[in-house]
Amino acid sequence: MLVLRMTRHGARKRPFYHIVAADSRSPRDGRYLEKVGTYNPMLPKEDPKRVTLVIERIQHWIKMGAQPSERVARFLHEAKLGPAVKYRESPKKSAPKAKTQERMKAAAEAAKVAAEAAAAPAETPAAE
């Protein structure tokens, strides 16, 4: 299967990426068919050289059936070459476990009851 993805270049802590058309079975930084753009995350977002795309070649590879990776699809959408990208949801394992959620609910209810109890005596003396 053909994919449009990024290959990492540049020095340590100074990333630079080439956007390439490659076979999905080849390694990330391995063999590719054609370089179709670049991405330099070290430049500010407003800089036009941050993402460069060879639009004609990208359109050619998409017609040939190439599927863009999530990040490349985002770049293509910004260049008005593709549809909007749905962002990946955060993993469920980052959510608190069931017992922790129960404890958090109990603590919230206790705080609410304490706040109501503190507010109630202030109103009672005025009623006498």
**What is the global morphology?**
elongated
Specify the helix fraction band: 25-40%
CATH superfamily of the largest domain: Ribosomal protein S16
How many domains comprise the coordinates?
Answer: 2
Explain how this protein is built.
- The protein is an alpha+beta fold.
- The protein has 2 domains: 2-78, Ribosomal protein S16 (S16 Ribosomal Protein, Chain: A, 2-Layer Sandwich), CATH 3.30.1320; 93-122.
- The chain contains 3 helices and 5 strands; from the N terminus they run E-E-E-E-H-E-H-H.
- The chain has a 5-stranded mixed beta sheet.
- It is elongated and about 75 Å long.
Keywords:
128 residues, alpha+beta, S16 Ribosomal Protein, Chain: A
Write the topology of this structure.
Blueprint: E1 2-11, E2 14-23, E3 34-39, E4 51-53, H1 55-63, E5 67-68, H2 70-78, H3 98-127
Parallel strand pairs: 1-5
Antiparallel strand pairs: 1-2, 2-3, 3-4
